Each structure stands twice: as structure tokens, then as C-alpha cells.
Structure to design on (762 residues):
């Protein structure tokens, strides 16, 4: 086995160890319970699981926020086929854990296959590991849908690359081939896919982009979808000088994206509907710029704990020792040899794939680094001019593009070292740069350790010197590799994996999520039940409020991942709690509930007296555009606030009984002696519909956050049914998009069959 094969086995072993650690909860039968995974994903996906196994609809979840649009929320992926299969046929614990670990193998394999078309296998594998287990992936480990959407990106890039070129290998070498000094792939030529030899591959590649894009949309994380699109467009533009091939590829790429958006139409419409009825429409400028990254925070790249947990909502900044040195070495060489590289980029015969990819990654790094500063940089103001995207907050998330670009360039740089980059003329400044970065890291650590005003968050964070040590040994390895010493490559690989293990896998969120994963039943330790169970809702003032669903409680409040429904009432008011069918309030650490006296305390619980029935009648209405204020001016027992005038008649209040209560469907038997308003304390959403005696009637927004309808004198059967536009309009579009995409996959086989028939007839 030659050294190149040993290097590949070395990188493969380290990568598999990291994958094994990430998948350990599944192997040990535990469940990752920490942060949003426990506070939101666990109860919401348990509801989704319960619906699938019991055959009920899952779009409307009545147990949180008085009822809210779960499918449109943006982070559930309820329509994705993989979720529909996993949560229907597997145990909940297995499905939930698979949902958590799926992004890592998907991303790892995708990056490897994409980079393998350009660089040798060892470098491609190292680049895959650096990205998959990067700081950004690990800090977002509690947001599996963000990670899974980003894990699709390298696969889309792979399909795009195949659109531009087909690779014909000559003398492909195996892992154990001793006949060649290097096992790197050698390519005879790159042929345009637009040529006759590759013409019928285009529909399949177009379909691949469509399926991958549709999968991203159906997983449901709009911010990640936007970040992925930026990378894709950047890679597309990097081939702009290929003229005809670029035009062909752009047309098929755009067609694939259109197919993908049509395939995911059911989720797009649901998300847009939830967005239109969420608090995101009320975001102020301060909300939009929240989590902007101060420029000084970038010093964390060389001193990881210098600003640790001092970037609001994001933590620290750390791109990795080896990726930073490798990318810095390559970028410095790019600028020092800009004239030579420019000629390569212009000259088609000399241009290589790694030059094009490296330039794209460099531009991506520069733009995303600027965008991540948000309020401090100014470029983010242009971001706010884009419709819908302008409502995406957290500029610091653009660092995922910076991290991706650094990992790509690091892989390319490592590939150059594998090809004995020292044979080419290397600038002395290029060799000095790693040591400059190392010196900067040492000085930062010394400054940090001796600055009393900067205090560590934990004992581990007080140990400032691993980063300078990692930089020092990585700089030694890079210097040796530049001079053609294979030992330097192994040093770089060793430091890269130790670095990932110490910093990225040492993050508190990773430690709690993976290494402290617990049996499923232990979530019960996080919530406290009311003194006794009643029939009303609960208002629970605690970060783990959603977990009460798992104990079969319904809440008037709750926590969602992104699309929090807009509420018009103040739930600190006792009368509001009474009309919202709230029976118990858990005070927690907040101020006591109830602006009016009357609550009876029981330890940390308050019992809400004289709550009104979930279904009742009102004989009077009042038009209000400020229900939070006007609710205090009415008699809540027989008066309802509405948004448009409607005339009622006084009389004895009618009677109403709930005879059927499914998820998104409420059946009521009602009897009234006059024209009155039937009031239901279920959250209002414009996609609810009401049917009175089988005929569709007018749905009213009542008391700000709830709904109702008008009933004439007599007995009636009333059905409130949640019929989302996503299923009415989006599902047919998704079926059409899926059918069209599948049809494209069969075009090569149909064409080949027709060609064989024609040849046979001749």
C-alpha cells in the first residue's frame, strides 16, 4: 500500500470515528434531548407521529397556542415523504433520532462525491469531514432541519457540475494500485454535456436538481433554503465564461429549480400562509438586525474563546485551525500569483476545475463575511430589499457560507499539497503566512489570559492555549507539506481531527445533545403538572412549556421554531384567560398573572376562576380594532368583539355542545332562541371554514384571537374545519411537479429504446 492509500485510509478512519460519535444516540437507544430539540421538536413531532399512527390530520395542532398551523410553521417538514414514512412505520424514538443524525452522513457523502470530481480522494474526504463536522454544523445541531437542507447543497452542486461537464476517466486507479506513484484521478478530457455524447443526461440531471430542491423545500427551513440557493447561484456564475455550455446548463438548472419549487408547492404555500399570520410581519429594524456579528468577533478565528458567548445568540466564531491555515495559504498564493491564475481562468485549455471552484469559494467568503456583520457592515441593507427574504433575521447565519467556502478552499489546498505543490515555484510570503497566523493566535491567547475584564464562562474556556498549540503544529505540518514531505500531510490530518474533537465536539450544545443523550422518558423531569387535571387549557411560564402536550395538556401559549402566530390579546389579563378556556397558570419566574384580582394560588400554580366554556353564545357584538384594550370594556359573558359589524338579537343565551373534536375539525350541536353569535375559543386562522347545517357560512374573527359564526334561531349542526390552501392548491401542483420530474428521469431510457428500434428496422 503506497503512502497515498495510507493517507486516504487515515482520513477515512478519522471521519468514520466522527460519524460514529454523531450516530451514537441511535446505537445506544437514547434520544438527543437538549435546547430546541427538546423544547419544540420533541412535542411537535410526537404530535405528528400520533397523528400518522392514528390516521388523523396533522396540519393543525390544537394543543399549543390555542391551536396553530403546524405544517406551515417552517421547521417540521410534515409533507416530506421521508418523514411520512419514518414517523408512520418506525418507533417514535428511532424516527426522532434518525431525523437528528440524517444531515451528517448525507452531507459527508455529498461533499466527498462533489469534490472527488475535481481533486484526489484523500483531499475530497478531508474537505468532506471539515465541512460536515464544522463549527457551524455543530452549533446548529439543535436545528436538524437547517442542517438537513444545507446537507442537500453539495448534491445539487454535483448535479450542476455534471450539467457542465462529463468526466471520462482513463486508467482509473484503485485504492491499492502500486503501479502509480499517486492514486489521484487522471482525467483525459472534460466533454460538454451539451454534446451528442451527453445530450440525454441533461433531463436526468434536471430532474435531480428538481428532486433535491423539492426535498429541501419539503424539509421546511426557509432560511437554510435561501443560504443554499446563494451557493448554487455562485457556482453557476463561476462557469459564466463557458458561453454555450453555460447557457445550456443555466437553462436546465433553472428548469430543475422550477420543478423543485413546484414539487415543494404544498410546503411553500403552507409556509407563506403561516408567515402572513405570524409575528414576522411585525419585525422591527432591531429584530431584523438581531444577531449581527461585530467585526471584532472575527478574532475568534485565531482565539476561539476570545469572544466566546459574547456574540448575542450565536456564541463564538471558529473556522478550524487546519482549514484556516490551508485556505489562507491557498488564497495568499492566489493573490501573489494572480497574473498566472488569471491566465488560467481565461484560457480554456489551461483552466482547471479546482481553480474555478476556489475562486467561487473565495468570492463567497468575502461576501458572506461582510453580510454576517449585519448592522455593522452596511451590505445587509441590500439584503433587506429582497421580498420575503428581508424578513429573515440573524445575519450571523451567513457564516455558514464563509465556513463552506473555507472548507472548499482547504480541500483544494490540501489537494495541491498532495500533488507536491513544492515543485511549483512558491512565494516566500506564502510560506510565512501560516506562521503569522500562529503568532497572532499566541498573542491573542496571552492577551486573553492576562486581561481581567474578559472572564471565561467555564473552567474549560479558561484554558486558552490549545488553539495556539494547534496552530503551531498545523503550521509545522503545512511547512513540511509545502516542501514535499508526506509527513506534513499526516500532521495536518491529525491536527484537523483533534481540533474538531476538542472544539467542535466540545461545544456545550454538542456535549448536552450527543454525549448526554438520555432515554426518551426522562423528558418528564423538565415539567410540572397542575395540582389536579381539569378540562381547560394551561398557561405555562417556562421554556419547556410544549412538553405538557406529552402529558395530554393543551396550552394557550407555547414555543415554535420560527413562525409564531400573531396574538392580539394580553394573556396576563384574567378576563382574557377566562375567554381562552384557561384553567391553570404556572407562574414560573415571571410576574404573577392576572391584572384583576380573583386568582387562587396553589404553590406555583394559579387556578383561573369562572372560566367561560370553550363553546358559548354571545347576544351582543362590538366592532374593535384593538381587542387587547377593548376586552376590558365589555361584559365577556354575552358580548363579543368582532372586526365587522353584525346585528344580533337579545334573548336567552343559546346552548352549544361539542360532539366531535378532531385535529382541525370541531363538530358542535347548537340551539338558540334568537339570532346569536357562536363563539369558539380556538385560535383564528383565515383557512378555517365553518359549515352550518352542511352549508358554508361566514367565519368571524372573534375577541381578537378566536373565531365564531352567526346562528339563526333554532337547532343547528355546526362544523368548523381547517382546510389549508396548501392541500387545496399546493398538493395538486406538487403532484404535477413530481410526475413531471419522474417523467424526465425516463427520457434517456425512452430515447435509447427508440434508437434501438430505429437501428433494428434499418
Amino acid at each position: 500500500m503506497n503512502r497515498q492509500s495510507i493517507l486516504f485510509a487515515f482520513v477515512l478512519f478519522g471521519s468514520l470515528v466522527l460519524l460514529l460519535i454523531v450516530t451514537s444516540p441511535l446505537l445506544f437507544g437514547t434520544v438527543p434531548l437538549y435546547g430546541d430539540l427538546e423544547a419544540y421538536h420533541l412535542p411537535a413531532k410526537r404530535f405528528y407521529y400520533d397523528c400518522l399512527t392514528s390516521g388523523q390530520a396533522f396540519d393543525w395542532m390544537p394543543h399549543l397556542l390555542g391551536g396553530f398551523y403546524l405544517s406551515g410553521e417552517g421547521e417540521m417538514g410534515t409533507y416530506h415523504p421521508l418523514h411520512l414514512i419514518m414517523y408512520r412505520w418506525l418507533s417514535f424514538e428511532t424516527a426522532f433520532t434518525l431525523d437528528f443524525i440524517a444531515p451528517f452522513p448525507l452531507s459527508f457523502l455529498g461533499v466527498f462525491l462533489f469534490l472527488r470530481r475535481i481533486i484526489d480522494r484523500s483531499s475530497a474526504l478531508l474537505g468532506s469531514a471539515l465541512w460536515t463536522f464544522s463549527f457551524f454544523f455543530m452549533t446548529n445541531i439543535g436545528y436538524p432541519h437547517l442542517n438537513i437542507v444545507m446537507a442537500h447543497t453539495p448534491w445539487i452542486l454535483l448535479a450542476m457540475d455534471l450539467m457542465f461537464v462529463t468526466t471520462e476517466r482513463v486508467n482509473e486507479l484503485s485504492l491499492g494500485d502500486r503501479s502509480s506513484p499517486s492514486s489521484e484521478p487522471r482525467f483525459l478530457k472534460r466533454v460538454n454535456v451539451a454534446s451528442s455524447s451527453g445530450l440525454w443526461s441533461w433531463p436526468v440531471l434536471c430532474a435531480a436538481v428538481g428532486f433535491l430542491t423539492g426535498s429541501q423545500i419539503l424539509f421546511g427551513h426557509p432560511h437554510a433554503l435561501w443560504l443554499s440557493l446563494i451557493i448554487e447561484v455562485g457556482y453557476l456564475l463561476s462557469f459564466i465564461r463557458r458561453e454555450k455550455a453555460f447557457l445550456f446548463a443555466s437553462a436546465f438548472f433553472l428548469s430543475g429549480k422550477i420543478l423543485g419549487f413546484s414539487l415543494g408547492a404544498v410546503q411553500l404555500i403552507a409556509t407563506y400562509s403561516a408567515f402572513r399570520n405570524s409575528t414576522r410581519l411585525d419585525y422591527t429594524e432591531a429584530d431584523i438586525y438581531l444577531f449581527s456579528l461585530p467585526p471584532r468577533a472575527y478574532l475568534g478565528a485565531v482565539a476561539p474563546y476570545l469572544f466566546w458567548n459574547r456574540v448575542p445568540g450565536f456564541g463564538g466564531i471558529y473556522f478550524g485551525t487546519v482549514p484556516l491555515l490551508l485556505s489562507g495559504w491557498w488564497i495568499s498564493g492566489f493573490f501573489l500569483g494572480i497574473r498566472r491564475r488569471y491566465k488560467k481562468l481565461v484560457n480554456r485549455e489551461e483552466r482547471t476545475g479546482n481553480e474555478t471552484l476556489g475562486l467561487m469559494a473565495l468570492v463567497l467568503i468575502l461576501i458572506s463575511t461582510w453580510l454576517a456583520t449585519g448592522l455593522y457592515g452596511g451590505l445587509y441593507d441590500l439584503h433587506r430589499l429582497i421580498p420575503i427574504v428581508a424578513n429573515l433575521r440573524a445575519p450571523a447565519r451567513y457564516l455558514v457560507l464563509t465556513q463552506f467556502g473555507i472548507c472548499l478552499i482547504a480541500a483544494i489546498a490540501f489537494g495541491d499539497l498532495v500533488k507536491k505543490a513544492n515543485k511549483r515555484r512558491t512565494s516566500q510570503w506564502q510560506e510565512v503566512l501560516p506562521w503569522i497566523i500562529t503568532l497572532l493566535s499566541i498573542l491573542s491567547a496571552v492577551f486573553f489570559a492576562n486581561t481581567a475584564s474578559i472572564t471565561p464562562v467555564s473552567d474549560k474556556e479558561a484554558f486558552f492555549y490549545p488553539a495556539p498549540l494547534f496552530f503551531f503544529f498545523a503550521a509545522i505540518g503545512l511547512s513540511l507539506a509545502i516542501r514535499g514531505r508526506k509527513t506534513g500531510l499526516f500532521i495536518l490530518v491529525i491536527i484537523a481531527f483533534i481540533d474538531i474533537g476538542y472544539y467542535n465536539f466540545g461545544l456545550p450544545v454538542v456535549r448536552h445533545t450527543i454525549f448526554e443523550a438520555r432515554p426518551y422518558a426522562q423528558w418528564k423531569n423538565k415539567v410540572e403538572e397542575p395540582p389536579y387535571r381539569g378540562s381547560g387549557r394551561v398557561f405555562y411560564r417556562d421554556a419547556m412549556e410544549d412538553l405538557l402536550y406529552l402529558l395530554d395538556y393543551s396550552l394557550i401559549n407555547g414555543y415554535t421554531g420560527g413562525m409564531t402566530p400573531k396574538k392580539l390579546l394580553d394573556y396576563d389579563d384574567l378576563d382574557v384567560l377566562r375567554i381562552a378556556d384557561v384553567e391553570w397558570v404556572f407562574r414560573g419566574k415571571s410576574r404573577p398573572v392576572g391584572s384583576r384580582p380573583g386568582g387562587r394560588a396553589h404553590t406555583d400554580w394559579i387556578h383561573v376562576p369562572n372560566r367561560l366554556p370553550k363553546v358559548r353564545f354571545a347576544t351582543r357584538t362590538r366592532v374593535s380594532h384593538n381587542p387587547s384594550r377593548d376586552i376590558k370594556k365589555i361584559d365577556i359573558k354575552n358580548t363579543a368583539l368582532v372586526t365587522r359589524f353584525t346585528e344580533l338579537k337579545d334573548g336567552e343565551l343559546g346552548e352549544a355542545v361539542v360532539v366531535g373534536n378532531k385535529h382541525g375539525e370541531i363538530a358542535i350541536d347548537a340551539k338558540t332562541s334568537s339570532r346569536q353569535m357562536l363563539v369558539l375559543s380556538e385560535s383564528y386562522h383565515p383557512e378555517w371554514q365553518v359549515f352550518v347545517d352542511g352549508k358554508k357560512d361566514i367565519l368571524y374573527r372573534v375577541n381578537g384571537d378566536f373565531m365564531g359564526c352567526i346562528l339563526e334561531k333554532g337547532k343547528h349542526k355546526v362544523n368548523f374545519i381547517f382546510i389549508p390552501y396548501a392541500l387545496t392548491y399546493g398538493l395538486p401542483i406538487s403532484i404535477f411537479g413530481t410526475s413531471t420530474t419522474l417523467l424526465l428521469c425516463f427520457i434517456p431510457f425512452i430515447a435509447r429504446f427508440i434508437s434501438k428500434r430505429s437501428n433494428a428496422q434499418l
Remarks:
- Residues 166-199, 345-351, 452-463, 589-602 have pLDDT under 50 and may be disordered.
